[in-house]
Amino acid sequence: MAKAATETPLMQQHNAIKARYPDAILLFRVGDFYETFGQDAINASAVLGITLTKRNNGNAASSELAGFPHHALDTYLHKLVKAGYRVAICDQLEDPKQAKGIVKRGVTELVTPGVATNDKLLEHNTNNFLAGLHFSETKIGIAFLDISTGEFFIAEGDREYADKLLQSLKPAEVIYQRNQQKHFKEYFGSKFFTYTLDEWIFSETYAVESLLKHFNTHSLKGFGVEDLHEGVIAAGAVLHYLKDTEHPNLQHITSIQRINREEHLWMDRFTIRNLELFGNDGGNTLLKVLDNTSSPMGARMLRRWMVLPLNDIAKINERLSTVEFFIKEVDIRNKITHHIKQAGDVERLVSKIPTKKINPREVVQLAKGLQQTEAIKLLCENSTNEYLKRLGDSLNPCKYILDKIVKEIGENPPAVAAKGGMIANGINEELDQLRKIAGSGKEYLIELQQKEATITGISSLKVAFNNVFGYYLEVTNLHKSKVPETWIRKQTLANAERYITPELKEYEEKIVGAEDKILQIELQLYDQLLNELQDYIAPIQINGKVMATLDCLSCFANNALHFNYKKPLLHDGMALELKDSRHPVIERNLPVGEQYISNDISLDSSSQQIIILTGPNMSGKSAILRQTALITLMAHIGSFVPASDAKIPLTDKIFTRVGASDNLSGGESTFMVEMNETASIINNISSRSLILLDEIGRGTSTYDGISIAWSIVEYLHKSGNAPKTLFATHYHELNELEEKLPRVKNYHVTNKEVGNKIIFLRKLAPGGSTHSFGIHVARMAGMPPGLIERANEVLHQLEEKHVDTSIGEAVKQLNVPKMQLSIFDEHSSTFDEIRKLLSTVDINRLTPVEALLKLQEIKGMVK
Fold this sequence. Notes:
The chain is α/β, with parallel strands linked by helices.
């Protein structure tokens, strides 16, 4: 209590507010600065590189202090959030000039990675999702909200499905119930920024009530999510968290959309990783190759399309036919692309309206977006493509508000509304008069001076201003007698008198208050405009989505033209036929002038269900596997594909098990990870699945590996589902399966031997490969020639013995290398003599001739 008594009122206020946000850094507004105290100051100074000082509160104890100017908030805020801190922004809630006693303060916003709206905190090309998770006994409910665009998604399913969605949509922050921390870490690891909430928040009654109140509806049936009970709880928790973090203005969250597992081609997180669809390290990925969109909206949508490819032929064909239309109608495509570029990031601009954080320049950009919408609508509606006509029909140029913005906001408005100067002339009569007064003050004073000089006949009359009594008229003593009685004398000087008049006083009041009044009227008119804009949030958001869709489809058309992609034929059958297929990522990164070697791939469930692909490492086996999956995926998002002809069956799941990826930090070996991933595949296959297996079993001993790989092939063949499978292996023993199982076919990657070198031709050919060429690869990698020779010797001996013995026995019977020395070796004494001879020689004093003679002597001793 004694300590509290010695604290200043300001610190008492700070501590009371800080107590409500103990786990956040509190930025406390004091005058023109945001200050931090105590541990907050220590953390902030470390992250921001600002000076840490001590503040003495009048007692022995003192508090750390660190601050920065309020106008630098944007710069410093994003650094704190990126460093993983929650930041509470505490502002002055009243004008300090009007305040009696201490200024009222309160937290106006709590910024966390998942609820960031500031442009500096956001990546333009990716969504910034806040994810809510609800764990029940049987399912996990999951909701994703991007507060910067208003997009709200809801789903539910098993742990694997939740994991896939988290890994795919990569939320910036995940919230879940506090008693599930152990489960969350066990299921999803510790890579996410998380925050836990009280259990009472995760109740269906509370969640439904929150959602109905937010959307102002009587039920959730209109959104088609009423049956997703766990998902609804997760969505309710997300809304609760937004209110908790001081985000009450959420009018831009206008709907909630369900993600149905069965509506999308399924890829588990291993497949998304193995196929290198996305990457944060700037590596070569499919997204990097395909993303040639013109707007951030299109880039965000393309990423979602890749994570959630379509599983409906009609919808896929709609996209494909539009891409085909765009390829033919170059002029329409170019015009639409141009308009989308000009429109700006409509989705993120419109989400700033509810919080009124949209500045005048952004409002003008929004109007520009609506003008572009009008042009795009005309182009779509006048096209011959049905899908484009439908998209065009859903566009709304919002004519009334567009005209109002164009009319009311000046051409080059300021970036900050508080500076004024954004409202055009001719909108408000009082504003125009005040501007005239403020802007043409000098002219008015000159007119007044001339008028009074003419009336009074005082030729030397002048108008001036001082801080004591404002504007005045100055008359020299010579003309004092001509001053009218209505003038009021204010000051007497040695050779002049100063007067004021009612007209001058009235003008002074006008001119001094004009600047303040102008800003007040402008802000009032701007606020009215923002209030009217609220009614147009939903249609403008739809415009944004349509533009994003058009952006993705015109991007696909551009890619097809530039990269020589062809339209795939999707069908309800089971056969996959690819002619001259290429790997979309590798071919884009080849050295200049080098052509990608294409391959034909054919799979079906009746005659060639499983291809066993043998060939050495570095020959291109993995590329052939991956390109088959990538082409299938590209077709399902509506893109043309890198092949001269492609017939692709509707696919429900793509599974890959490619390469070894140790999870050693999780305590699992390569082999354990491999078996977990393979078990996940085996247990989830259907007749419409595409399975790619690369080097299964290599994480264990040779015969274990062969037997596991063998049994997997048998299982996939016998399975009533008959999934299409590509199996790359270096176990040549698996080639024998072709004789035993009718739908298994052997292929190998061709090569040719030139001298003692192997050249991989990267072409598929029927039949198995008999050599692994591992030793040739070792030579290409630069292994010492002696080591390569010995490897060849061992290989020949093993191959001779392996015919009728086990590998273990063959190894036991290997000849010991000839160069190995033994203590009974006849040369041992000779080498001793050479060693003694060399130890007596002083190399530094030897002449070249003497050195050659010594070498000859040593050579004679070895014979």
